[in-house]
Amino acid sequence: MAARLHQLRSKAAQASEFVAKNGCAYYKELLEKNKQYIVQPPSVEKCQELSKQLFYTRLASIPGRYESFWKEIDGLRHIWRNKKDLKVEEASIAALFGLELYAWSCVGEIVGRGFTFTGYYV
């Protein structure tokens, strides 16, 4: 256990050294590549304006997402009506997808409780 801790510390030190040497250059390169997305001059007012634009753009996209949702529901209804024609592969994929959703829900509950299985800190 002590050997692993020493190994972990040395790798963390190497990573820290790498970031210290190359972090500034990476930052400058990243800003240079994406300078078309940087608003000049940076100001609080411009940030507020951009956040409002994002909010109302998302709000305006709701009708399209609503239509897409109901198309998906109609597709599921069609599959359910014609379940006799359903292949084993399609049914197994749907079952695996449902199982994955259930597993993510369980993981979310565990994380929400602070990584405890009973809900209480022991």
UniProtKB/TrEMBL annotation:
Keywords: ATP synthesis, CF(0), Hydrogen ion transport, Ion transport, Membrane, Mitochondrion, Transport. GO terms for cellular component: mitochondrial membrane; proton-transporting ATP synthase complex. One of its GO terms (molecular function) is proton transmembrane transporter activity. One of its GO terms (biological process) is proton motive force-driven ATP synthesis. It is found in: Mitochondrion membrane. The keyword Disulfide bond does not apply. Belongs to the ATPase g subunit family. This is (wild Malaysian banana) hypothetical protein. The lineage of its organism: Eukaryota, Viridiplantae, Streptophyta, Embryophyta, Tracheophyta.
